[in-house]
Write a structure and sequence with these properties.
The protein is globular and about 50 Å long. It starts with 5 loop residues before the first helix and ends in a 6-residue tail after the last strand. The protein has helices spanning about 5-15, 25-40, 55-65, 70; strands at about 75-80, 100-105. About 35% of the residues lie in helices and about 10% in strands. The protein has about 110 residues and is an alpha+beta fold. The longest helix is centred in the N-terminal third of the chain and has 17 residues, at about 25-40.
Length: about 110
């Protein structure tokens, strides 16, 4: 893959993300999807960590009591969930594979 263009840089600055077609081969994408399916199926998330994902610190403080789970995730594999996927006891209301907003930040441990 060539270096990104100035147009792509501007697109990233405008949209906050950039699609890099061909960055991974279809086979690599399939392998990553299969591996992530296994990780999500086996995820063991303590009840106190079953909170909805937000990048807003105030919202993190409101839902989690603090932002430590998010802020200390740089060297760990942590699960962050969509809104409305847990009942009042913290049990999943939707299939696990549809509950995840993102898995981060220690993604290098996935493969």
């Amino acid at each position: 893959m060539d270096f990104i263009t100035e147009e792509q840089i501007q697109k990233y600055r405008q949209d906050g993300y950039l699609v890099l077609e061909g960055f991974f081969s279809p086979e690599e994408c399939d392998a990553l999807r299969e591996r992530m399916a296994v990780i999500v199926e086996r995820m063991d998330v303590p009840l106190h960590c079953r909170t909805e994902f937000s990048t807003e610190q105030e919202e993190q403080l409101k839902t989690q009591g603090n932002a430590d789970y998010f802020m200390s995730s740089g060297d760990k594999v942590r699960f962050f969930f969509e809104k409305g996927v847990f009942d009042s006891q913290g049990d999943f209301l939707v299939p696990r594979e549809r509950s995840v907003n993102k898995i981060g930040h220690g993604k290098y441990k996935v493969i």
